[in-house]
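User: Okay, second chain of the day. Same drill as before: sequence in, structure tokens out.
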Amino acid sequence: MRRITRIATVGIASAALALSATACGGKKSSDASSSPSESGQKSAAIAYDIGGRGDQSFNDAAYAGLKKAETDLKVKTAEAEPTDGEGEADKVQRLTELARKGNNPVIGVGFAYAPAIKKVAPKFPNTTFGIIDDTSVTGPNIANLVFNEEQGSYLAGVAAAKASKTGTVGFIGGVEVPLIKKFEAGFTQGVKDTNPNAKVLSAYLTQPPNFDGFAKPDLGKAAALGQLDAGGADVVYAAAGLAGSGAIEAASSKGKWAIGVDSDQYNQAGLAKYKDSILTSVTKDVEDSVFNLIKSVEDGKPTTGEIRYGLDKDGVGLADSNPKYKEMADVVAAVEKAKADIIAKKITVKTAP
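Assistant: Same drill. Structure tokens below.
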């Protein structure tokens, strides 16, 4: 899906933000840093990851948090979409423009924003910058919103192993980076701890610096079909953003199970035609992480540093929206036991395969 760069204020018709203020004789970033929301209007912004809003997954979860803040906190909100093949300079410009216009906080959705936030945040010391899924960039005005993805993925592995009839399940990662390898590690461990004889097929759609594996559903569909047909898998778990929707489509076409990621994908409108094949989803409470950061700024006590969400705080989990999942008593019982054991630290989940 090809997207156009846009910076738009949610729910306000006339809200397009002007680009390239410096080039047009505006203030330098450092000059604008001390006066967020000069108009007196509260405002918060997010800059989307690859795939943009509408991915039915990671970005949409972040948008839900922004929308909740707009409704509950009465703040104005802005969004900025990525472009195909963009580089670090594009992200720097995007974050700079959002901060210059007085948005606070400004949240980068995804680890790809780390280099840009490292450059932009020091220029706007009175603006809080949030980054989701990254701890590599730190600073007095940076909040690192991170999750124990491996814990939720372990539960998915338990569910997959219990639901599988062939004893073979599949994992599909969007791009082979450390973050996605956490998903793979947890999933594989959960499968093997539940059924030591089970086989886990693993595949990555692209290698960095090619990040198409997070954006192209056709790649996810092809990989899933390979695992389902040639590999004999009957459950496929994809941690691949928008590309994961292709894996869900493939599983549905074969009458097999898919496991969603980041959002409860059973309830995503764009996946409604495949929902009966979505056994469960590994959820990350990206929505509340975004909302909580915005609220901390609005309360005058901006949260910074590492803010971690795990099973113990329901920051990650496994969705049970599909009635068919709830009917699988043995699956549910095994998942609940695994969850309790992880929280009690009886099980330590690996973060690398």
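The first helix runs from residue 29 to 32.

User: Thanks, on to the next one.
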